[in-house]
Amino acid sequence: MMDILIKQARLNDGEALQDIGIKDGKIIAISEYISENATQVINADGRVLIPGLVESHIHLDKALIADRKPNMSGTLHEAIDVTAELKPTFTEEDIYERAKKALEMIIAHGVTAVRTHSEFDPAQGFSGFKTILKLKEEYRDLIDMQVVAFPQEGIFKAPGTEKMMYEAMDMGADVVGGIPYNDAPANEHIDLIFDIAKKYDKDIDLHQDFSDEATDTSIEYLCKKTIQENYQGRVSVGHLTALHAMEPERLNQVIDLIAQAQISVMALPATDLHLGARNDKYNVRRAVTPIRKLRDAGVNVCLATNNIRNAFTPYGNGDLMQIAMLAIPVAHLGGASDLPTVLPMITENPAKALKLQNYGIQVGNKADVVLLDTKVKADAIIDLPERNYVIKDGRITVEVKKEVKIFR
Question: Residues 298-301: contacts with CB within 8 Å, 24+ apart?
Fold first, then answer.
């Protein structure tokens, strides 16, 4: 007896519909017809079944605070200042309620794995960081969470933070975070992050070169350092918006370096469009990392949310599909050959960056899947479909039934 049997699901366009059998948290059978009985049977009726969505870069601890002190200029500088002013007022109870709400928002939209950056500094201590670790444990049956130790205010410019980085790793951080552009000197910041990562044998995830201009970047140094330390495939970067301002020859060289270092890039279009190019008076730039060029060079490109309703991104509902939909016109990904590359940017690509084990719809893998209310996989993003069912570790965790009636 199977636990769940999904009947007649579409895994790929142009292929026969498949039955998927699930037992003990794993996919145990995929066939055009499965006759075995199951405790629960879901009739997909040709709807698209995909692996669980993967949110690869989000800040749960500072979600849902846009109404407390708005970012009036819309600039990155003011977003950092506003958030720094608010953080000392956060209580553990406050962070818990907001982060929990944001977490449930992304779960409801089909996310089964998430990497969240959780910050700390001498002013606020570890209140937020401890809260996120608590939520990781509480929600372990609904979502796999990786917690990044993130020094938002810098390390060297915020004395005491270096010690806290080591403490955060001892407390259970999964990934070493950093922010070279908000510290000085940036290269020494990167060196320290690698020292910590090597000590604990952890991967690295940096907020990297978040700027409208390409005059003061450290991405080249990061790539060379990654190769020097044999950390290829273990480093991810978010934002990386300065690349959009590089001259073509230099940009090509940098992208080649990124590919050689096997650095994953998390593009964050909702935030970067909102904050970027605020000083442009005309011909306003998009200020988003060059997704197409990175993709075409073989870089592992992911799309992620970053923030939900705060000074950095004063909107959002936790739907990663909407982020992907936004990226399509922003990065010119709507072409017939481009559109199929978008869904992997919120599934397979971030799963690779996060090193998720046994991910994907194959026999023997974890039963983390989402049934979409669309019957064409190529339209999985542009339809913005309901997530009819979310299954995590072989258990239905979300069910959405929506009936639309049109009256004439």
Answer: 298/259, 299/255, 299/258, 299/259, 299/263, 299/264, 299/265, 300/262, 300/263, 300/264, 300/265, 300/349, 300/352, 300/353, 301/264, 301/265, 301/267, 301/345, 301/349
Strand partners, 48: 10
Residue owning tokens 């007896």? 1
Residue 224, pLDDT above cutoff 90: yes
> Is pLDDT above 90 for 14?
yes
Residue whose entry in the numeric block shows the structure tokens 């809260």: 131
Give the other-Cβ count within 10 Å of 172's Cβ: 13
Instruction: Convert the pLDDT of each residue in 45-67 to its tens digit.
Output: 999 999 999 999 999 999 999 99
The token pair at 31 is 């066939």
* Cβ neighbours for 365, distance < 8 A, ≥ 6 positions apart: 26, 27, 358, 359
Asked if pLDDT for residue 403 goes beyond 90, the answer is no
Write the CB contacts of 408 (distance below 8 Å, at least 6 apart in sequence): none
Q: What is the pLDDT of residues 102-117, one digit of tens each?
A: 999 999 999 999 999 9
From residue 275, give the alpha-carbon distance in Å to each of 194, 251, 269, 334: 29, 22, 10, 24
Whether residue 352 is predicted with pLDDT greater than 90 in this model: the reply is yes
Give the tokens for residue 275: 């904050």
DSSP output for 236-283: EEEE-GGGGGS-HHHHHHHHHHHHHHT-EEEE-HHHHHHHTTTT--SS
Residue 203: name the closest of 182, 221, 178 by CA: 178
78 CB neighbour count, 10 Å cutoff = 18
Contact indicator for 398, 104 with CB cutoff of 8 Å: no
Nearest to 182 by CA among 207, 165, 146: 207
**Strand pairing of 395-399 and 387-392?**
antiparallel
DSSP assignment string, 142-202 = T-EEEEEEE-TT-STTSTTHHHHHHHHHHHT-SEEEE-GGGSSSHHHHHHHHHHHHHHHT-
Structure tokens at 226: 């990654």
CA distances from 156 to 161, 183, 272 (A): 7, 7, 26
pTM of structure: 0.97
Name the more confident of 215 and 123: 215
Digit-coded pLDDT (tens) for 61-90: 999 999 999 999 999 889 989 998 898 889
Radius of gyration of the chain, Cα coordinates, nearest whole angstrom: 21
Does 402 score more than 90 pLDDT? Answer: no
Q: Is pLDDT above 90 for 184?
A: no
